[in-house]
């Protein structure tokens, strides 16, 4: 589908700026992450010594699949899913066909779909935070620090209640936002996601039935630690999503600070305290070409408001699930990237 047939502006107007985020929020990325969770679990299960050990060729096949997930792999999984109408089971069946293990029942052994899903989604969020969000926020802080330093002695009009007040400096006003954003940056950098791996109702039932003497709680804890995730010791069929809610709350706080920044910059431009330069060849108005409009601040404001509204809705929904679970959270989870 070409950009100009896209339903969402994320895949149309903004595609050039956002296309790389498909590595974290696309259906392809989710399938890749599910396969990686299944394979990592398979290797840890093998190391537990409960089954006859994987041979060298089998381990090599697993490592190859871990290192490379292709478009053709994705198409094969989606073709299987179209026949059986189950996405996680399609991943399992794909791995059974691809790996050709002597003991194929080791794949997905004792797990429920949510064991795979909660880890797959969480690892994608963790990667997005570390590879995209934190570096981007750090870059913004560095740019603001440059402005704060260069404007530290520049007198700047101040307003309270919209009226003229005692003056400030341009550097100090940038420092206000540095201070606020730096706190959020530190929260995000220290943030730890949680995960669960405990079966269909959170009791390790299938695993215990197969190997009753084995310490599955410790197995689960160590597996999650190997993924750099905190262990959630008591859940229903689904991980409770409270850690996602905590993360989204920090992101919502970040968005609100940036909203405040956008609006202040817009007002400074309106009052003439700051001046914008037009890009070469850019037109500010269809009828007033001499204008330079603060469209980046305005677009940022609108998009941040949409993000805050979606994060509120997603957090409210994911914090609730009927009894052991219902599927209403699934469609919401797929919209995190929006």
UniProtKB/TrEMBL annotation:
Gene3D superfamilies: Fumarase/aspartase (Central domain) (1.20.200.10), Fumarase/aspartase (N-terminal domain) (1.10.275.10). Coiled coil: none annotated. InterPro entries: Fumarase/histidase_N, Fumarate_lyase_CS, Fumarate_lyase_fam, Fumarate_lyase_N, L-Aspartase-like, PurB_bact. Keywords: Lyase. GO terms for molecular function: lyase activity. It comes from the Bacteria. Residues 12-302 form the Fumarate lyase N-terminal domain. Pfam families: Lyase_1. This is Adenylosuccinate lyase.
């Amino acid at each position: 589908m070409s950009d100009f047939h896209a339903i969402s502006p994320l895949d149309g107007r903004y595609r050039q700026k956002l296309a790389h985020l498909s590595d974290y929020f696309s259906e392809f990325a989710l399938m890749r992450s599910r396969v990686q969770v299944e394979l990592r679990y398979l290797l840890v299960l093998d190391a537990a010594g409960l089954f006859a050990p994987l041979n060298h060729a089998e381990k090599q096949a697993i490592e190859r699949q871990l290192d490379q997930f292709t478009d053709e792999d994705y198409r094969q999984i989606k073709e299987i899913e179209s026949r059986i109408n189950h996405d996680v089971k399609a991943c399992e069946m794909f791995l059974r066909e691809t790996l050709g293990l002597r003991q194929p029942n080791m794949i997905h052994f004792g797990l429920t779909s949510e064991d795979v899903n909660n880890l797959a989604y969480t690892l994608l969020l963790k990667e997005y935070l570390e590879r995209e969000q934190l570096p981007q926020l750090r870059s913004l802080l560095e740019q603001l620090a440059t402005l704060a330093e260069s404007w530290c002695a520049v007198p700047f009009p101040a307003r309270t209640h919209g009226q003229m007040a005692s003056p400030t400096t341009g550097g100090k006003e940038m420092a206000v936002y540095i201070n606020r954003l730096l706190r959020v940056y530190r929260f995000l950098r220290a943030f730890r996601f949680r995960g669960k791996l405990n079966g269909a109702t959170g009791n390790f039932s299938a695993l215990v039935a197969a190997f009753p003497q084995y310490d599955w709680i410790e197995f689960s804890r160590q597996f999650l630690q190997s993924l750099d995730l905190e262990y959630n010791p008591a859940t229903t069929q689904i991980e409770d999503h409270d850690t996602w809610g905590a993360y989204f709350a920090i992101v919502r706080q970040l968005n609100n600070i940036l909203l405040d920044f956008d609006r202040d910059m817009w007002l400074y431009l309106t009052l003439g305290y700051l001046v914008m330069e037009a890009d070469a060849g850019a037109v500010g108005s269809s009828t007033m070409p001499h204008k330079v409009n603060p469209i980046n601040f305005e677009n940022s404001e609108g998009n941040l408001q949409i993000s805050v509204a979606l994060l509120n809705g997603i957090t409210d929904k994911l914090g609730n699930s009927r009894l052991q679970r219902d599927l209403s959270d699934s469609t919401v989870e797929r919209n995190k990237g929006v």
